[in-house]
Design brief:
Blueprint lengths: L1 E2 L10 E2 L5 H12 L19 E2 L2 E2 L6 E2 L17 H25 L8 E5 L7 E2 L2 E2 L6 E4 L4 E5 L3 H9 L3 H18 L11 H20 L6 E2 L4 H12 L17 H14 L1 H5 L3 H5 L21 H15 L8 E3 L15 E4 L4 E4 L1 H7 L5 H7 L7 H19 L7 H17 L13 H9 L18 H14 L2 H7 L1
Parallel strand pairs: 1-2, 6-10, 12-14
Antiparallel strand pairs: 3-4, 5-11, 7-8, 9-10, 13-14
Helix pairs in contact: 1-17, 2-4, 4-5, 5-7, 6-7, 7-16, 10-13, 13-14, 13-15, 14-16, 14-17
Length: 493
C-alpha cells in the first residue's frame, strides 16, 4: 500500500482523495428509495429474490439422478461402468434431450447428436483423439474435428462429485456440450474461426445455465436439482474451475473469473439460450472482470490487515456512501467482533445502539490470508479467502448502518440481500480511477468465495441470518456491481 502523494502505478490501494462524487450520489439515490417492505421477524420477505430463484420456488432435496432415471442409449468409448461414468453419460443424454427440445424452438433448426463420446482416466489412459492424447489430462473437453465430448473419470469427475455432489459433473459436461452447440449454431451464435476464447466460454457457461433451468423445472428424465442446496453446489463448482487471478480475458483459453462464470451461468438460467447466443465480444468486454494484475501490484492484490488499512477502508466507505446524508458507522475493535447486549455476528457486527461496527481483527486476519488455488484443487481448502473477503464482511456491516440511518429494514431476508447488493455497488465504486481503495484482479472472486460460505456476513441481516441459496446471494452482489445501487432498493425493498 502506498500512502500520501501520488500513487504508485498499479498499487492496489492508493492513499489519495478519489473522484467518487457521482458514485456517491448513485449510492445515495438507491438507499434513499429503500422502504421497509420485508418482515421484521428474520424470515424471508415478499420482495422478488427473497422468496424465489429467478421465478422458481426455493426447494430443498438431494440433487442427482432420479430413482427411476432410464439407462441412456449412448455408445461411449472406453467407459468402465463406474458411478462417475454413469453420471456423465446421463448428463450427456440429458443435455442432448434439452437441446433436441430447445434448438428447434429457439433457433429454428434441429439438434444433431454428438458423433463420438470418450471416457478416460487421467491416471492410466493414453487414448488418442483428433485433438491429441488424453494422457494425464485432468479435464473434460469438446473436440470439434471429431464432434467429440470427452471426460476424465479418473481424477476430475470423482473430485467434483466428492466435493460438490452428483450434479457437479453435469455442470462440466453441459458446458462442453454448449461448445458443440456453438458449432451447430455457427453464425446464429456469432461464432467464427477467430472468435476469442472468452466469448466461447461465456456462451458455454450460459448454455449450461439454460440446461440447469430446464432440470430445475423438472423437465429432465434423468436429473433433479434443488434450487437451494443443489444450485449452491453448482455455484461452488463454477467457483473452483475459475481462472487463476491475474489472467487476461484476451488470453487464448481464458474461461473467466468466478464472477464472470457464475454471471454467464445465471444469465442462461434466468433468460435462456437466446440470450446466451447473443453474447459477443463487444458486450462481454463491457462487463468482464477478468484482467491482469496492475503493474507494480507486488502483493498480487493482497494487503496486510491492520489498523491503518482498516482506516483506509473506513474512508473508502464514508466517501462512497456520503450522499446518503446519514452518519457512517465507526469501525472499532471494542467488543471483539460483537455488540454488548446487541447483535453478535463475529468477526464483524453492526451495533445499532451506538452506530458502530465491531470487528475481531485476529479472525479477520485469518480470513484475509491469500487464496491458495493449488490447495483448493488438491484438498478443497485454502487457509484464507483473501483480503477483499475480509473487507467485504466489514463493508456489509457498515452498509447495515447506512441502511438503518435511512430507515430501511435491517433484520430480514431482503435486508441481507440488499446488503450484498450494496457491497457489490461499493466494489464497483472501487474501480473508479483515483479511488481510495482500488479493486484488484481476483478481488471479486474473494468476495464470492466468502459469499458462498455458510457463515458469510456479506448477504446477512443484522442478526447474521441469510437466505439459504447461494444463487440468490451471488445475484444480489452481481446486480449491485453491474447495475449500481439503485437496483438494490428496487429489487430488495
Amino acid at each position: 500500500m502506498i500512502q500520501g502523494g501520488a500513487p504508485h502505478e498499479g498499487a492496489r490501494f492508493s492513499f489519495k482523495r478519489p473522484a467518487l462524487i457521482a458514485v456517491a450520489t448513485v449510492l445515495a439515490l438507491g438507499l434513499s428509495a429503500c422502504s421497509d417492505k420485508g418482515s421484521s421477524t428474520g424470515q424471508q420477505g415478499s420482495q422478488p429474490g427473497a422468496g424465489d430463484i429467478a421465478g422458481l420456488p426455493v426447494t430443498h432435496f438431494e440433487s442427482g439422478l432420479k430413482p427411476n432415471a432410464p439407462k441412456p442409449d449412448l455408445q461411449v468409448r472406453n467407459e468402465d461402468g463406474s458411478e462417475d461414468d454413469q453420471l456423465a453419460i446421463a448428463a450427456i443424454a440429458d443435455s442432448q434431450a434439452y437441446w433436441t427440445e430447445v434448438m428447434p424452438r429457439d433457433f429454428g433448426q434441429p439438434y444433431e447428436p454428438l458423433k463420438s463420446l470418450l471416457s478416460y482416466s487421467a491416471k492410466t489412459d493414453d487414448e488418442e483423439t483428433e485433438c491429441g492424447s488424453v494422457k494425464k489430462l485432468v479435464n473434460a473437453f469438446y473436440c470439434p474435428p471429431g464432434d467429440l465430448v470427452a471426460w476424465d473419470r479418473g481424477v476430475l469427475l470423482p473430485m467434483l462429485r466428492e466435493r460438490f455432489g452428483k450434479m457437479a459433473g453435469a455442470v462440466v459436461l453441459s458446458h462442453e456440450l454448449g461448445h458443440a452447440v456453438q458449432y451447430r449454431l455457427a453464425e446464429k451464435a456469432g461464432i467464427k474461426k477467430n472468435t476469442p476464447s472468452i466469448v466461447k466460454e461465456q456462451q458455454a457457461d450460459c448454455f449450461a445455465g439454460g440446461y440447469f433451468r430446464w432440470v430445475a423445472e423438472d423437465k429432465s428424465k434423468y436429473y433433479r436439482v434443488s434450487t437451494s442446496e443443489g444450485l449452491n453446489q453448482v455455484m461452488a463448482s463454477l467457483f473452483l474451475i475459475r481462472d487463476q487471478a491475474g489472467t487476461s480475458a484476451t488470453k487464448q483459453g481464458a474461461h473467466g473469473t468466478a464472477f464472470d462464470r457464475t454471471y454467464a451461468f445465471q444469465v442462461g438460467f434466468e433468460k435462456g439460450p437466446k440470450e446466451c447466443a447473443a453474447m459477443n465480444e463487444e458486450n462481454i468486454k463491457a462487463r468482464i472482470t477478468e484482467r491482469p494484475f496492475d503493474k507494480g501490484d507486488k502483493g498480487k492484490g493482497d494487503e496486510k490487515l491492520d489498523a491503518e488499512i482498516i482506516g483506509i477502508l473506513k474512508k473508502s466507505l464514508d466517501e462512497a456512501f456520503k450522499g446518503a446524508g446519514v452518519p457512517g458507522p465507526e469501525i472499532t475493535e471494542d467488543g471483539n467482533g460483537s455488540c454488548p447486549g446487541g447483535p453478535s455476528t463475529p468477526p464483524a457486527s453492526y451495533c445499532p445502539s451506538n452506530n458502530t461496527v465491531s470487528i475481531d481483527m485476529a479472525k479477520l486476519r485469518e480470513l484475509a490470508q491469500p487464496v491458495d488455488q493449488q490447495a483448493e484443487w488438491e484438498s478443497g481448502h485454502s487457509e484464507g479467502k483473501g483480503d477483499f473477503a475480509a473487507f467485504s464482511e466489514i463493508a456489509s456491516r457498515y452498509a447495515m448502518g447506512i441502511q438503518k440511518g435511512v430507515g430501511a429494514s435491517i433484520d430480514n431476508a431482503n435486508a441481507g440481500l440488499r446488503t450484498a447488493c450494496l457491497v457489490g455497488a461499493w466494489a464497483k465504486a472501487s474501480t473508479v480511477p483515483g479511488a481510495t481503495l482500488r479493486l484488484s484482479a481476483g478481488d471479486l472472486d474473494e468476495a464470492i468465495s466468502d459469499l458462498l460460505s455458510p457463515e458469510s456476513l456479506v448477504s446477512a441481516d443484522v442478526n447474521g441470518k441469510r437466505v439459504d441459496n447461494g444463487f440468490e446471494r451471488l445475484e444480489a452482489l452481481r446486480k449491485g456491481y453491474l447495475e449500481n445501487s439503485s437496483v438494490c432498493s428496487q429489487q430488495y425493498g
